[in-house]
Task: inverse folding
């Protein structure tokens, strides 16, 4: 049996840069702190499903485009 | 650095100083002197008052600042409270058992120990919980 994926990855930084958004901007729009966005970008913190959807919505894309698993 | 992390660092410093001061003062002078010579109890009470007042002032000052408390903060607070509670329980248990073993032959112990257990537990709980919070904030940063 193949090993199940266990790590969440993301493209937040790339998508954010495309939209000219800073971590602070994204944090304000998703009602969380800049530190939380930074922790998510560095894969040190896995966001809740609600926050993940909020981030995808602000980045004008789908959740699958923002987050992945490996 | 967000406001919640700053609050945790300040709380950790206030109650850390209070805890180590109380323990050091009590152990250096000894329980007998501590309960009979009034000045020792007064100094300790003053330190506790100073710590409590600083904590309240910090809470009032940080309340005015705009603070976003998000899901990561919530997770960190939950984890630190849970671990803090467990460690505080262990602290009281070990402290009481050490006293029990040490004084079991004598049959009784100085009442000042009970005073120390009460105040040290109080300050230890705040100290360890905020210390764990700071650690988790650094870990998730």
Result:
């Amino acid at each position: 049996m193949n090993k199940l994926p266990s790590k969440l990855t993301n493209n937040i930084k790339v998508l954010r840069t495309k939209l000219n958004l800073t971590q602070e901007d994204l944090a304000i729009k998703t009602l969380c702190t800049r530190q939380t966005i930074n922790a998510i970008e560095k894969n040190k913190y896995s966001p809740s499903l609600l926050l993940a959807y909020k981030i995808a919505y602000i980045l004008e894309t789908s959740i699958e485009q923002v987050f992945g698993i490996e | 650095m967000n406001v919640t992390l700053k609050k945790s660092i300040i709380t950790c410093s206030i109650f850390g100083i209070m805890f180590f001061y109380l323990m050091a003062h009590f152990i250096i002078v000894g329980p007998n002197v501590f309960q009979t010579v009034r000045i020792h109890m007064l100094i300790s009470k003053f330190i506790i008052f100073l710590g409590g007042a600083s904590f309240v002032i910090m809470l009032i000052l940080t309340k005015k600042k705009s603070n976003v408390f998000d899901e990561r903060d919530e997770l960190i607070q939950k984890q630190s409270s849970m671990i803090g509670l467990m460690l505080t329980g262990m602290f009281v248990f070990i402290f009481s058992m050490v006293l029990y073993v040490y004084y079991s032959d004598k049959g009784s112990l100085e009442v000042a120990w009970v005073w120390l257990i009460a105040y040290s537990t109080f300050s230890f709980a705040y100290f360890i919980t905020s210390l764990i919070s700071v650690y988790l904030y650094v870990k998730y940063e």
Q: What stands out?
A: Chain A touches chain B at residues 27, 31-36, 38-39, 44-45, 47-48, 51 (CB under 8 Å).
